[in-house]
Description:
Layout: H1 2-17, E1 21-25, E2 30-34, E3 39-47, H2 75-78, E4 83-87, H3 98-102, E5 110-114, H4 115-136, E6 139-152, E7 155-169, E8 172-181, E9 194-195, H5 197-204
Antiparallel strand pairs: 1-2, 2-3, 3-6, 4-5, 6-7, 7-8, 8-9
Amino acid sequence: MKKIFIILLLLQVTCNCFCQIITLKKQYYIIYFHEKQKAPLYTVYTLKRSYLTTNKRKGDFIADTTVALNEQANDTVYKHSNYDKGHLTPDADFRFNNAAEAETFIYTNAAPQQSYFNEHLWASIEAHVRSICRKYGNVKVYTGCLYSAKKLHGIGIPAYFWKVILYKVNDKKVQEAYKAKNSKPVFSSYKNAADSMEDIKKLTGLVFTY
């Protein structure tokens, strides 16, 4: 019963989100930004094999100039907390040039993500997406948050993060879905976060297209 209540609460928060969403179109991806949470609801992009590189991370988060400063996070929000600035669209997917990577380092593309979760389980999911891209080519990537009622200095804290990837293998359409609680996990492999497309669709109300 408690689990059902939590899921219903997340659905209510998510449904309310869509009444307060603004679309921020960047050069390589799109952010659907939730004004009340002052953080992204979800992002969408296509990862291409030509984007993949072994370049090292280079960049620091800055404000998104298309959103008012008091409507987004800043560095002070995350100081002395147990949360990282969790990219929704990861910088590691856009290191093929400095401008592309820099575009991911904006606060409208980040949500509070528990540090160990970010550096282990979530990193494993992101690495898996790049592995799929290397093997099969273009991957459509949706990444989002299911927000709790908790805040980090006024910024919404997701209860869960989710990711959906769409790609083709020999012209056959393939879909994968992942969802994980935003807390220190007991496992670190993307395989343990596998979910069904039906579950993500119910929780988000989104239609996922190739």
